[in-house]
Amino acid sequence: MNPPHTFGEAYDTASLRERKTNFQLPFVLALFTKDIMHTKSTRRGRAALSNPTGRFEAHTLEPVEDGWIAEDQPTLRTEVADELARQIITRNTSPDISFDRSINPYRGCEHGCIYCFARPTHAWLGLSPGLDFETRLFAKPNAPDLLERELRAKSYRPDVIAIGTNTDPYQPIEKDQQIMRRVLEVLRDHRHPVAVVTKGTLIERDADILGEMGQMGLARVGISVTTLDRQVARRMEPRVPDPARRLAAIRTLTDAGCPVRIMVSPVVPALTDHELEAILEAGRDAGAVAASWIMLRLPLEVAELFRDWLSEHYPDRAARVMGRVRDLHGGKDYDPAWGKRMTGEGLFAELVAQRFAVAIKRLGLKRDLPPLRRDLFRVPPRTGDQPSLFD
Q1: β-strands 260-267, 290-295: how paired?
Q2: Which DSSP category does 125 fall into?
Q3: Left, alpha or beta for 227 (phi > 0: left; psi -120 to 50: alpha)?
Q4: DSSP annotation string for 63-105
């Protein structure tokens, strides 16, 4: 039996979860022994410093430097496996987010943002939220077909589908996979509302579809910019396009007719929070019409990964950053309570919120955009179907 770590093979979603629980200890030892010791050269272009064992595994291995690790090991490469999903629209009932359904074309994200709150989801696959999350990815090539099938169901009722709320649909592998573009084509043909969030400038490729849908009141986009400092961005988001390129993507989309929100997300206390106003102004100047912000979130394994990253890249500020983070979350690295997890609590959270409010008022940016239209939804005829007299 080949577990889901064997790439180049297709797996259905259920078997990914099922097979994870069937790993035998000798296999786990063989698998992780080659993964847990990485040098700067092997993880070049990656944010995580390590590949810690996932929280659901029965055994944890610790790396030990015994002098036998070769310094000339090959650099980690991105590997992609196809996942044969059984359903593509995911539902949620979270009270502090504005949508009840979403689509994730990929698992894992090559952008490799060290702070990414989606990292812990890789543990469900028997993989590490560390380097595995950035290098061992799953694509869902049947997503467009599943989406069309689900939208055609007689019981389906349209509402905004969010894309990019977990892993980025415009991460580098989308250039070859083109799953996101095909998903957008299905949504356009069904006149279905969609909200996209991304850091990827590959979204410019799809400005034709998003512009058309935006002009119909069916689409909007959020572009996330964490910092304008290229060095900080390169360390924190190693495979995300340069901040200036993301700002240029805002202009491309707005010129095409799609409304864009500048997202200061996340705000990293004592590292990037001083840039809040500058990012908002740069977004406005690029054409953004709305804005939002989210405080740094460090759920589960992300906290340790982020602390290690801070210690390597900003040792002089690490204690101050984490101290401020814990002030926001009642002394903990993270508080997942609804209504608190996105902003934190306390004086610093209130100060950031006040600064944001003052800045968007001065810049003429909106908090909220008009609701996307649901009344245009239709199921397009298939080849050979009787045309509707009312289309």
Answers
A1: parallel
A2: G
A3: beta
A4: ----S-S-TTPPPP--EEEEEE-S--PEE---TTSS-SEEE-S
Residue pLDDT, tens place only, 85-113: 999 999 999 999 999 999 999 999 999 99
H-helix or E-strand containing 267? strand 260-267
CB 160, CB 154: distance < 8 Å: no
User: Is 388's pLDDT higher than 90?
Assistant: no
Residue 87 lies in domain: 11-57+80-363
Give Cβ neighbours of residue 326 (< 8 Å, ≥ 6 apart): 332, 333
Residue 372 lies in a domain: no
Cα 379 to Cα 157: distance, rounded to the nearest angstrom: 11
Q: Which stretches within 141-242 are classed as H helix?
A: 143-152, 174-177, 179-189, 207-215, 230-236
> How far is 210 from 201, CA to CA, in rounded Å?
14
Q: Which residues pair with 219 in a beta bridge?
A: 194
Residue that has been written with the tokens 């977990």 in this structure? 166
Q: Above 60 in pLDDT, residue 274?
A: yes
Q: Is the pLDDT of residue 384 over 70?
A: no
Whether 386 is in a domain gets the answer no
Amino acid (1-letter code) at residue 351: L
Residue 388 maps to a domain:
no
Residue whose token pair is 């990037």:
272
| Nearest of 230, 296, 223, 226 to residue 260 by alpha carbon | 223
Contact 217, 373 (CB under 8 A): yes
Q: Which helix (H) or strand (E) covers residue 293, if one does?
A: strand 290-295
Q: Whole-model pTM?
A: 0.89
Domain CATH for 318: 3.20.20.70
As a residue count, the chain comes to 391
Q: What are phi and psi of 161, to 5 degrees?
A: -95, 125
- Give, in order, the Cα–Cα distances in Å from 60 to each of 138, 139, 279, 314: 24, 28, 41, 28
Torsion of CA 91, 93, 94, 100, to 10 degrees: 50
Residue 120 included in any domain: yes
pLDDT in tens, 208-233: 999 999 999 999 999 999 999 999 99
User: How many domains would you assign to the chain?
Assistant: 1
CA-based nearest residue to 106, from 129, 79, 138, 81:
138
